[in-house]
Structure formats: C-alpha cells, structure tokens
C-alpha cells in the first residue's frame, strides 16, 4: 500500500521575512510534482499568499479556533485541530483532522467526543508521538492494530529526536501506514523529508512509490530560499551521516561491527540529478534568451567529477550552494 506523504514545513519552520509569495508557490508546486500529496500550513504562510497553487492538497493548522474562519476563504482538504481546540462546538464546512498523542485504548473515546463537538466533521485522525522504539515486525503489528480499531484514515507524525523520527518514519512506511507527516528541512523533532527520501535511495536502493527525486530537488532549492537557517543545508552531508551511522552499526546478537556495503558513489548520481532538476526548472521560466543560455551553460558544465572523499568531508565546501 502506498503511504501518502504530507509536508508540514510551512508550520514548523520559520519563514524568512523576505520570503516571497512566488518562491513559496514555487516550493509548493515542486513538492506536488515530487509526489507529496498534502502541504500543511498556518496563517503565517497564508498572509504571504494571494491564492493557493493548484495541484496540491492543503491542510490548515488552526492554531486557535479564532482562525477557523480563515478556512472559509481558501479551499482546504482538512483543518487540523487538537483536543484542546474542542472546548466549544466547532462550526466548519471543512473536514477536521484530529491531532492526538498516541495513548493505547483512549483515542476511541476522544474521537467520539470530537465528533460530537464538530457535528461529525472529524474525517481523519493524526497520531503525533514518539511511538517508542519498535522493530519492523512490531511496527507492522502496531499499525495493523490501529487500522482495525480506528474507523478513519490515520496519519502518523513521528516526533522523536531527528534520527529516531526518521527511523520510525521508514518503518511506518514499510508497515503500510496510510500517511506520514514529515518536514522537508531538518528539525530537532520531526523526521526530515529530505533525509527520508535519501535514506530510501541510499539504503534500500529505491524511492517511495510515486516519488520523483528530480522534482524534489527543485523543492530543496526553494526551501533554501524561503526558510531561515537553511543556508548550510547540503545533501552531501547526509551521506557523511549515513556513512558514519552504517560504519558504527553493531550486530545486535554478537556485538560485532557490521560490514560496510554501501558506497558513496550514489552522491555523484544525486548531484547529477540535482543539475538535471535545475535544467527542468529553467525550461519552465520565462527568461530572456541570453540569460537562459548563460544559465543552461552553467548547469550543463557543472563538474560532477569532483565528488571525492576530500570534497565530501570538507565542511566548508558547499557544492550545491
């Protein structure tokens, strides 16, 4: 079963003050082309946007019930509300996604209460939690048990430390979770969509079903333009992290170090894909012919042969900046 991917970057990461509506729209369009089904945003992003780009599903985080009227001005697929938001009856024409921490055997009663407070408009539920440290088989049983007990689509939002959240997101995907909420940039709590995709490609030699890595690199380009503290983001550094993690792995039974079987040659391929995605982006821009030719030449002659260990591990070298 395909797991639907939701990006919540526009809620959990701070936008630059000078982030333009055009760049935010470009970010959303690139995510849609990459195979992301929904973008979650709040009033801060809406203040910069005149209208929402087509081709993407939208989830509005209410933050406070006073903002619920904003949902009437835009076409949202869901509004996200927490249990604390349901102190009074909520009147909304937009379906509600109820966000809860996962507590065994309590969510069904909470769901009944939420349905009563929203006139039956709760049509999806999100469990936002750390979900513990489960192996894959235990995760599969966990997801199956939830699906059997919750009569609605269930979204999972892992909120562990960054790497633990990533590990949890991968296991939930292989366990048939309906959907996952991730964040494109790296954050302290949420799993990074960038690391999620590259982990699939590096470790499993595949990508999530329907995911387009070329278009996703276009989204990476835009998030560096619109989010604060994203100047130092570098895809190659993810491979340094993966390299270290895999080399430090130990066999759970014997305690011996595992053999290192994954080569960093994939980073060269990723850099070529990045250049290809830039070429596609240029083709869609209305540029003067001389500007277009100059930029195409710059991308065309992007030197992909310099991907040596010295460059990969040089913290001061920003190949993709």
Q: What labels describe this entry?
A:
321 residues; alpha/beta; 8 strands; flat
Write a concise synopsis of the structure shown.
The chain has 321 residues and is α/β, with parallel strands linked by helices. It has 12 helices and 8 strands. Strands 1-2-3-4-5-6-7-8 form an 8-stranded parallel beta barrel.
Task: Tell me what the structure shows.
β7, α6 and β8 (179-182) form a beta-alpha-beta unit. An eight-stranded parallel β-barrel has the order 1-2-3-4-5-6-7-8. The protein is 42% helix and 12% strand. α7 packs across α9. The longest helix is centred in the last third of the chain and has 19 residues, at 266-284. It has 321 residues and is of the alpha/beta class. The protein has helices at residues 9-12, 21-34, 43-46, 107-117, 136-149, 162-174, 193-203, 213-226, 235-248, 266-284, 289-300, 309-312; strands spanning 4-7, 38-41, 57-61, 78-82, 96-100, 122-129, 154-158, 179-182.
Q: What characteristic shape results from the CA principal axes?
A: flat
Strand order of the largest sheet: 1-2-3-4-5-6-7-8
Which strand-content bin applies to the residues?
5-15%
List how many beta strands DSSP finds: 8
State the secondary-structure class.
alpha/beta
Oligomer: single chain
Tell me the span between the first and last alpha carbons. Answer: 36 Å
> Are there runs of 5+ residues with pLDDT below 50, and where?
260-264, 304-321
Radius of gyration: 21 Å
- Approximately how much helix is present in the residues? 40-55%
Could you describe the largest sheet, including whether it forms a barrel? 8 strands, parallel, barrel
Average pLDDT figure? 78
How do the helices and strands follow one another from N- to C-terminus? EHHEHEEEHEHEHEHHHHHH
Total helical segments: 12
